[in-house]
Amino acid sequence: MTTVAAYAAPAAKAPLERTTIERRPVGEFDVLIDIKFAGICHSDIHQAQEGWGEAIFPMVPGHEIAGVVAEVGPGVTKFSVGDRVGVGCMVDSCRECDNCKAGLEQYCAKGNVPTYNGIGKDGEPTYGGYSTHVVVDENYTLRIPDGLSLDVAAPLLCAGITLYSPLRHWNAGPGKKVAILGMGGLGHMGVKIAHALGAEVTVLSQSLRKKDDGLKLGADHYYATSDPKTFEELRGSLDLIVSTVSAPLGLDQYLALLKTDGAFVNVGAPEEPVSLNLFSVIGGRKTLAGSGIGGIQETQEMLDFCAEHGFGAEIELISAAEINEAYERVQSSDVRYRFVIDTATI
Ligand SMILES: [Zn+2]
Ligand SMILES: [Zn+2]
């Protein structure tokens, strides 16, 4: 065991504070990662506040991890000391079910092992990236291409893959009209990725406050959902809408924006169940779907894609002492567009 510094929530809703945690010894197939940067994802806040059900405390959040390999186990073949690497939302899965075999580890039939607020195969709680080091199996470790700076790469490990996977699955590309609903940490990555895939990109945001940013990041059109005219103008025009919104939505009015065979895909989810008039999907043979992060191979593909197209996330770099303030700002949508912790300050 190695004792390392971390920022942890000691209990639900308690402010995060500096502490130390134990990392497991480097096993045969493990890499020890010297964490350089950790992104703050909205789901860190949900879990630290126990908004998604019972959680494990103390909790060290963080599943957008970028760093450098400091040590490798004797069986490791994929990485060497000094390699630039990342860790996303999961650190293990059963590796045997149909989903794991198909590279869909995020949908592991036995449940994947989350990077934090989970129980590892050793029976111990997992602790995330708000820390100086982490030990991860090489099969759940990603390579960060040289063209990507580690700070802007960190948020790709959750926000990036959460948007890349559905955009690929529903064939966002040339000739497709794709809307990204919500222009936050997830949404801004959706705009960049959908644009790089060659789609015609529309942002649907509550207001036009971030319009300049949206157009700069690759959107072709930008509409305010607070304006009823938006729903008249865009009616029946879109192939795909990816919703990053976690507040309750009037789904029927968004489904009306789709063309025949269009799809509305949720990557954000409100805490309460939603209601829907099923005629909204019957007319026009529409799909209402959801999508969660991506598999390991697809996450690597996404990192390579972002490096090839020369972009990471738009970030605000903060010190560890600013984490609690950053949480408050995320909750009031006051971040452009992802906070990233410089873990040297822990
Ligand atoms: Zn996340
Ligand atoms: Zn599995």
Q: Any overview of this molecule?
A:
With 346 residues, the chain is α/β, with parallel strands linked by helices. It folds into 2 domains: 2-158 and 312-345, Quinone Oxidoreductase, Chain A, domain 1 (Alpha-Beta Complex); 160-290, 3-Layer(aba) Sandwich (Rossmann fold). Helices cover 24% and strands 26% of the residues. The protein has 11 helices and 17 strands. The protein has helices at residues 42-48, 98-101, 150-153, 159-169, 185-196, 211-217, 228-233, 251-255, 279-282, 296-308, 323-331, and strands spanning 2-8, 17-23, 30-39, 65-72, 84-87, 90-92, 113-114, 133-137, 142-143, 177-181, 200-205, 221-224, 238-243, 258-266, 287-290, 315-318, 338-342. The strands form 4 sheets. Strands 3, 4, 5, 8, 9, 16 and 17 form a 7-stranded mixed sheet that branches. The protein has a 6-stranded parallel sheet with strand order 12-11-10-13-14-15, covered by helices on one side. Helix 4 packs across helix 5 and helix 4 (159-169) crosses helix 10. The radius of gyration is 20 Å and the shape is globular. The two termini are 19 Å apart. The mean pLDDT is 97. The structure holds zinc ion (2 copies). One zinc ion binds at residues 41, 43, 63, 89, 158.
